[in-house]
UniProtKB/TrEMBL annotation:
Any single Gene Ontology cellular-component annotation: plasma membrane
Taxonomic source organism: Drosophila ananassae
Protein name listed in UniProt: Uncharacterized protein
Compartmental location: Cell membrane
Domain of life: Eukaryota
Record carries keyword Transit peptide: no
Record bears the keyword Acyltransferase: no
Length: 709
């Protein structure tokens, strides 16, 4: 890997003496000597600055730790136990706060600078679009966001146009003409997942709806009116309904109706325990016909463009049963969907001090392709790309060696695995498609915000953002069939991922602390960025990725023997994570739902450690020219060996601050809750127990461990 920083190479004061010809005299030599001193001074200053930065970051890492807990007892608490007490006070754009996701706020600070950088916008030919973003931001900053103006005429007019609000309109609302499905379809046009939980990749995919506002509701968390799930959702509905000056009796009646609808709807999901795959199996086993209203969704959301032949994740049984429930609760359903629209438009500020943060994040995500263009031009350097490429190369070498050595693969399957590994493509920064990017950015010119109120501006932007997400679907025929999903173009996003065409992406936005800094020791870089790269590489060989071959085509390249061995190891990991109990909600991790992410965590962490060791061995063989690197593998202020720092860096990516509702909301995610991601990965890593000297049988060094790769 390239050195993290170089001193004096072509730096200030560099002078090519050939320009002096043969006329060099004492005066010229004095100039040269003076400039050489300047180079030395810059070198010293640069070194001092880097050491001060390292010391500062080491102190920050230490402040996250709970040193009263032994690392072998609970490594997550040891690494992250104090994080919630010292983390920056940001507006949370999503529910829970997680250290790595908080990089979004680092990028937010850059977005604020871009808003007034007319020179850069002109150079990139996006001045008109930046002006629109400024108009939206200014409208947001001058708007009243706390308390949320739920009764604003713009919101009420929108609700009435898509289905109506019986709590407000009373007898004027007509139940006979109301369609819960059509109203849900209309809401998707504003990015609102009501009773149609739409996810856009290229064409729409669907998940089971998640009911509730601040707290996802399930049968056992709203069984009485004193639970936290009940109270939070009740309070949210009260706030919105009170804005319309309804009587307390009417408000109570509306809320009771919504809870009654939720309880009935949840009984459907309870039959298959919220498992979408089981729901689809029920549909097939009971010969449930295609749900009859589905064409309406395509008419409303896609102007009649139909993707029903490519439906993924859709369960006819659920919607057949949900239709029966909704027919018993038409007013409650309309009220719920109306309140959900208000919830989507609400900034949900707890204090006015977060107003600016919210507005910056609103333009950051709302005008994402515009600010991505500015960000990539300003902040993603060739130096960064070069070093990240070197780390990726080390991880690929590590993965190749692991596939060569793993004992349970037979020769035929090993050959196919190595072929797949050798053809993994890497994209660092972002995928590029300038033609599509330009078309997307130019769409912002269509927003007419001059003189519009903030609610009107917000509604316009929500519609446009959804339209942009559907861009590939609307232009499916004219685009190359190999076109990547649009989020691949967003280098500014805090993300890395594996794509089933056998490629991995390390986006530019993730290359900030706590993931990466060029001046960090290699031990920390490999524990953070190296682990994330290893995680994504391992996805190529998890239960989904292993169904695709080296060309990214679905193909079974496994022999029965190797396939059975893989399945046995997969079950070990499922059972291991199933055993993690979440005391805050009295539930266990779903090891089956999260299995691929857990496989990637365990494999990725091991690959990163192997890559780090290989990298350091290579440097030691060149110790004379890399003596400084070898001396700086520890973090100032932390009494940790380089490999202990490696594991600490990994764990602190996942420092999180959860409330009870966040645990419930996370249960439907394919990623394990952050705490158990850390515990699962290190307790199944034999090297961890050696690095931290954990005795056999301790919580972080169990007698039986699981791994595939």
């Amino acid at each position: 890997m390239a050195r993290a920083w170089k001193h004096g190479t072509g730096g200030p004061g560099h002078l090519d003496t050939r320009t002096l010809g043969h006329q060099a005299n004492d005066h010229h030599l004095a100039i040269i000597a003076g400039r050489q001193k300047l180079v030395t001074h810059v070198q010293v200053r640069s070194f001092e600055d880097s050491q001060n930065n390292l010391k500062s970051y080491g102190e920050k890492m230490k402040s996250y730790m709970n040193l009263s807990v032994a690392p072998c007892d609970d490594f997550y608490e040891y690494a992250c136990g104090n994080w919630k007490n010292v983390r920056p006070d940001h507006f949370q754009y999503n529910s829970e706060s997680v250290n790595m996701r908080d990089i979004v706020h680092t990028i937010r600070d850059e977005v604020e600078k871009f808003l007034t950088n007319k020179q850069l916008a002109q150079a990139l030919s996006v001045s008109s679009e930046l002006l629109v973003a400024q108009q939206f931001y200014n409208a947001c900053r001058s708007a009243v966001l706390l308390p949320f103006p739920a009764a604003d005429p713009a919101y009420l007019a929108l609700i009435r146009s898509v289905g109506g609000f019986p709590a407000i309109d009373g007898a004027a609302w007509n139940a006979t003409t109301f369609s819960w499905f059509n109203m849900s379809a209309h809401l998707t046009n504003f990015g609102i997942n009501g009773l149609i939980n739409e996810e856009i990749i290229v064409v729409p995919h669907f998940k089971l709806p998640e009911l509730g506002f601040d707290h996802i509701v399930q049968t056992d968390n709203i069984f009485n009116n004193t639970s936290r799930a009940y109270k939070l959702n009740e309070k949210r509905m009260q706030i919105y309904l009170q804005a319309f000056n309804l009587t307390e009796d009417k408000i109570s009646e509306v809320i009771a109706g919504v809870f009654a609808f939720w309880r009935d709807a949840l009984t459907i999901e309870d039959k298959f325990h919220g498992d979408g795959e089981k729901c689809i199996e029920i549909s097939k086993n009971e010969n449930v016909p295609k749900y009859h209203q589905w064409e309406s969704y395509y008419e409303i959301a896609w102007n009649g463009r139909n993707f029903s032949s490519r439906l993924v994740g859709y369960c006819d049984y659920y919607y057949e049963q949900l239709d029966k429930v909704c027919s018993r609760h038409p007013e409650a359903v309309a009220n719920y969907l109306s309140l959900l629209l208000l919830y989507r438009m609400d900034a949900k500020l707890e204090e006015e001090k977060y107003h600016k943060d919210y507005c910056l994040l609103a333009v950051q995500f709302g005008f994402s392709h515009l600010f991505n263009k500015l960000y990539m031009a300003k902040h993603f350097t060739e130096r960064t790309r070069s070093e990240v490429s070197a780390i990726v190369e080390e991880l690929q070498n590590s993965q190749r060696k692991a596939l060569q050595k793993v004992e349970w693969l037979d020769p035929e399957t090993r050959r196919e695995a190595l072929l797949k590994q050798s053809t993994i493509k890497t994209v660092i920064g972002s995928y590029k498609n300038e033609q599509v990017t330009t078309r997307l950015i130019q769409k912002f010119r269509g927003l007419h915000l001059e003189g519009a109120s903030y609610p009107q501006s917000l509604i316009q932007l929500a519609m446009l953002v959804t339209r942009l997400k559907r861009f590939h679907g609307f232009h499916y025929e004219e685009l190359d069939e190999k076109s990547k999903p649009l989020h691949f173009l967003l280098g500014m996003q805090v993300n890395a991922f594996y794509y089933l065409d056998n490629s991995i992406y390390v986006m530019a936005g993730i290359l900030h602390p706590p993931v990466y800094h060029p001046n960090w020791p290699n031990s920390l870089k490999f524990g953070t960025l190296g682990y994330l790269v290893g995680h994504e590489l391992t996805h190529g060989f998890d239960t989904k990725g292993s169904q695709f071959n080296s060309e990214g085509k679905m193909h079974n390249w496994w022999t029965k023997k190797s396939g059975a061995a893989f399945k046995e190891r997969e079950m070990c990991i499922i059972d291991h994570y199933n055993s993690y109990h979440i005391p805050e909600i009295n539930r266990n991790i779903n090891g089956k739902k999260t299995k691929d992410e857990n496989i990637a965590d365990i494999g990725g962490l091991q690959r990163a450690l192997d890559a780090y060791r290989s990298h350091m061995k290579h440097l030691k063989n060149r110790s004379k020219e890399n003596s400084e690197t070898l001396r700086n593998e520890q973090m100032p202020g932390l009494d940790l060996s380089p490999e202990q720092l490696f594991f600490l860096g990994f764990a602190q990516l996942w420092c999180a601050d959860y409330k009870q509702e966040h645990f419930w909301n996370h249960l439907t995610d394919e990623h394990t809750i952050e705490k158990y991601r850390v515990l699962g990965a290190v307790s199944n890593n034999h090297d961890f127990s050696q690095v931290y000297n954990c005795p056999a049988g301790s919580p972080m060094h169990p007698h039986h461990t699981c791994h595939i790769w």
